[in-house]
Specification:
Elements (H helix, E strand, L loop, with lengths): L20 H9 L4 E3 L1 H10 L4 E6 L8 H14 L4 E6 L21 H15 L8 E5 L1 H4 L4 H8 L4 H5 L2 H8 L6 H17 L3 E5 L3 H13 L6 E5 L25 H9 L6 H8 L4 H13 L4 H17 L1 H16 L8 E5 L5 E5 H7 L6 H9 L3 E3 L2 E2 L4 E5 L3 E4 L3 E7 L1
Parallel strand pairs: 2-3, 2-5, 3-4, 5-6, 7-13
Antiparallel strand pairs: 1-6, 8-11, 9-10, 9-12, 12-13
């Protein structure tokens, strides 16, 4: 017999809006990789009552990024039609991590670190989803009460062979790399989340397909109506190769300042333009098709299209004025090669005209580079400029009023003080 859910989350009745065929198609096709089974979801959306929509987050890092936003935006679309969102913070499974050390993206964390990261997540969730129509639930509400007997009953429902069919496990097993037993528990625990909250639809990236299907199967085993699996494409990161991830450093965080967010979007490869528009904006499908054709024929300038994308992404998190100001900053600094309007001021004491400095030490002391080694590397690359001219020597005279540019993003004006 399966363990009973350790918590009871009531089904909130929400007035569900009527849905025409065009709305339904957009909901289930745009930014969607696969729905299992799609026809059942179509039927349930048309018939009602409001559905319970589940999405889980692993708080292994303190911030969320645009990769997470893909799913959150889809949840918001369902909310606007009257459905209920339940966001599960995986505070329990985050402590499992990957004890074998094979995964960079799943470090083992202390309970304190998980709690701190999760609190940051919760604040950022509501930059996208409607807080008034969202429940945030912590896994520890039910797993904190689990005993060994309940864990064993849960594991008895599946076989090792079933779990070794998951792609990442299969690859590591084939290559002779370790797979910790605790890792095999992760899909089971995620599946039990669906049982605990009585999920109707679970959302996740295509890399979560196996786990979502385990949840569907477990629900059926315990007598619940099996959840529908809603899979979305993975957003490729700024490196243009791997999925967006803070661990891989190819992310754009939702809490980043407007200028930084705009600049990172401008750095993506041209071939990512249309996927980003589709997954991260509300640009109509007809307009997207026009953009696709214009880019393919060469009648659209990718730089201008990318500026629009960056402006729309910034506006989504910081407002329209911030989007316009970020574009003006980018054009001023990176296209016209002018200094930004706001520049850090460094006050120094020297003779009547300026100050002689050891430049690497000076940059480190004023938090313009992380280390002397980085400063020396930038010097050797000609990436440090003084009033528009590349600096070549570590021993440098800085006149008062002069403007330093360090790499692409750091600026400082030297003043007497």
């Amino acid at each position: 017999m399966a363990p009973k859910p350790q918590t009871s989350i009531p089904r909130r009745l929400i007035a569900q809006r009527p849905m025409n065929q065009a709305t339904l198609d957009r909901l289930l096709k745009r930014g969607v990789a696969e729905v299992i089974p799609e026809e059942e979801l179509r039927q349930r959306l048309q018939e009602g009552p409001p559905l319970r929509l589940k999405m889980g987050f692993d708080p292994s890092r303190p911030d969320i990024h645009l990769g997470h936003v893909v799913g959150l935006r889809k949840l918001r679309q369902f909310q606007e039609l009257g459905h209920q969102v339940i966001l599960i913070v995986g505070d329990w499974t985050a402590q499992i991590g990957d004890p074998s050390g094979q995964s960079l993206t799943r470090p083992m964390l202390t309970a304190e670190a998980v709690q701190a990261n999760a609190q940051s997540y919760i604040t950022q969730f509501f930059k996208v989803v409607d807080q008034s129509r969202t429940q945030v639930v912590w896994q520890s509400e039910w797993f904190g009460k689990f005993g060994l007997a309940e864990v064993l009953r849960l594991t008895s429902r599946f076989t090792v062979a079933q779990f070794l069919a998951r792609e990442d496990f299969a690859n590591r097993y084939r290559e002779g790399r370790p797979i910790a037993i605790t890792e095999l528990l992760y899909p089971l625990l995620q599946a039990y989340d669906s049982v605990a909250i009585q999920s109707d639809v679970e959302f996740g990236g295509t890399d979560q397909r196996f786990n979502l299907l385990v949840g569907r199967e477990l629900q059926e085993m315990v007598g619940q109506r099996p959840q529908i699996c809603f899979l979305m494409p993975l957003l490729v990161g700024t490196d243009g190769v791997q999925k967006m991830s803070k661990s891989l450093g190819n992310y754009i965080g939702v809490d980043e300042p407007p200028n930084d967010m705009y600049g990172k979007v401008m750095s993506i490869a041209d071939e990512l333009l249309l996927p980003y528009f589709e997954l991260l904006t509300d640009v109509p499908d007809g307009e997207l098709e026009e953009l696709r054709q214009a880019l393919a024929s060469g009648t659209a300038n990718p730089m201008e299209v990318k500026k629009r994308l960056a402006r729309e992404v910034v506006a989504q998190f910081h407002g329209d004025p911030a989007g316009r100001e970020a574009q003006e900053h980018f054009e001023r600094v990176y296209q016209r090669r002018q200094a930004p309007q706001e520049v850090k001021t460094i006050l120094v004491a020297g003779d009547s005209e300026g100050v002689q400095v050891d430049l690497p030490r000076f940059l480190v002391e004023h938090d313009l580079v992380a280390s002397r080694a980085e400063a020396k590397r930038l010097l050797s690359q000609g990436a440090i400029q003084l009033d528009g001219e590349a600096v070549k020597d570590e021993a440098t005279f800085l006149p008062y009023g002069s403007l330093l540019r360090i790499g692409r993003h750091q600026w400082a004006r030297v003043m007497r003080g």
